[in-house]
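Dear Dr. H.,

I hope your travels went smoothly. While you were away I took the liberty of generating a structure for the chain from your last submission, since the lab meeting agenda had it listed for discussion. I wanted you to have the full record in hand beforehand rather than looking at slides cold. The sequence, exactly as received, is reproduced here:
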Amino acid sequence: MSGDLRICFLGDSFVQGIGDPTYRGWVGRVLAATAPEITAFNLGIRRNTSDDIAARCWGEVTARTVPGADNRLVLSFGSNDMVEEDGRVRVDPARTLANLAGLLAESRERGMSTLVVGPPPVIDAGEPHLSRTTRLTAEMAALCRAQEVPFVAVTAALAADPVWVAEVRDGDGAHPGSHGYDRLADLILDGGWRAWITGS
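The corresponding predicted structure, in token form, is as follows:
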């Protein structure tokens, strides 16, 4: 690991940390629990789908990475893709997977180590959204496994977590408060983050 460790966190409103009164979200919590000094860039944008993220990824990442540094990428998306609008999901699951595959291929070409965090559930979107997101999570995990990219699944655990569910319902129906982001950060820390950071 280079002394200049730079990580771009690219994703949606869950990456941005919407709903957290401390403005840290899961990204801030994960960084605070990590020993090495990290130059981190939170590139989460509310309502972004995988199409949006694929379109803006490399322009934003290139501006924040430098040759010779330990440049890394964390990707997290899919929840918005599976939201139904006007009778159809915003992004077809096959295209979500194609977007992920393209991002991973380009990351590999650039020599960037990548970690993928699966999509959290949108509680107010109900069981149909949860079913779609759960299937997408399994497909994303399989794709990452085939490419030897670490993947952290969070959908099922958060959907069953009373703290996450209660805070989301007390909030805007999609995003938790501070304790919910604690739970999400713990899943990521325990789900492969530390091994990915250290390379062990």
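Two observations you may find useful: The longest strand covers residues 5-11. The domain at 5-198 is CATH 3.40.50.1110 (Rossmann fold).

With kind regards,
E. W.
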